[in-house]
Amino acid sequence: MDRCKGFISMALGLAVIVVAVASPVVAADSATVKLSPQSGSGESGTATLTKQGDKQTKVVLSVTGGSGSQPVHIHKGSCAQLDPKPAYPLSPLVNGKSETVVNASLDDLEKGYAINGHKSAQDVKTYVFCGDIKGM
Predict the structure, then answer these.
(1) Is 86 in contact with 38 (CB distance < 8 Å)?
(2) Is 122 exposed, middle or buried, given 0-12, 13-18 or 19+ CB atoms closer than 10 A?
(3) Pick the residue with more confidence: 13 or 114?
(4) Which domains occur in the chain, in start order?
(5) How many CA atoms lie within 13 A of 75 on its CB side?
(6) Digit-coded pLDDT (tens) for 75-124
(7) Which residue of 50, 105, 118, 123 has the fewest C-beta atoms within 10 A of its own C-beta?
(8) Eight-class DSSP state of 136
(9) Distance between CA 37 and CA 133 in Å, rounded?
(10) Radius of gyration, alpha carbons of the chain
(11) What mean pLDDT do residues 36-48 have?
(12) What is the rounded CA–CA span in Å between residue 133 and residue 136?
């Protein structure tokens, strides 16, 4: 009887190991990006990116320290080397909040893009916060 219990325990243990090893790695369904101040703005916050199917991503920004309506974009590159041409426009930041669904997969965005905020529509050359979108 004890031998039977031992055999069953060993078989179950091996089954768990086989399932764990054979299971595919699943990509994350969301990512959080830290938005850091630029140009002495004092503006900072987070962007939460969530998969919306295979080809879209929901981008939700929460930023403190700014005022009014501010243009926000996803740019190719990093905060250190940003392509000045926006790749994906985001809804303007109003009262520190913005929510947009972009036509790009989260997996693609994690391969060399950054979220960048501008001082105002009249002063888009002044960057006030930025965060690199990085894969897990």
Answers:
(1) no
(2) exposed
(3) 114
(4) 30-134 (2.60.40.200)
(5) 22
(6) 999 999 999 999 999 999 999 999 999 999 999 999 999 999 999 999 99
(7) 123
(8) -
(9) 16
(10) 22
(11) 96
(12) 10
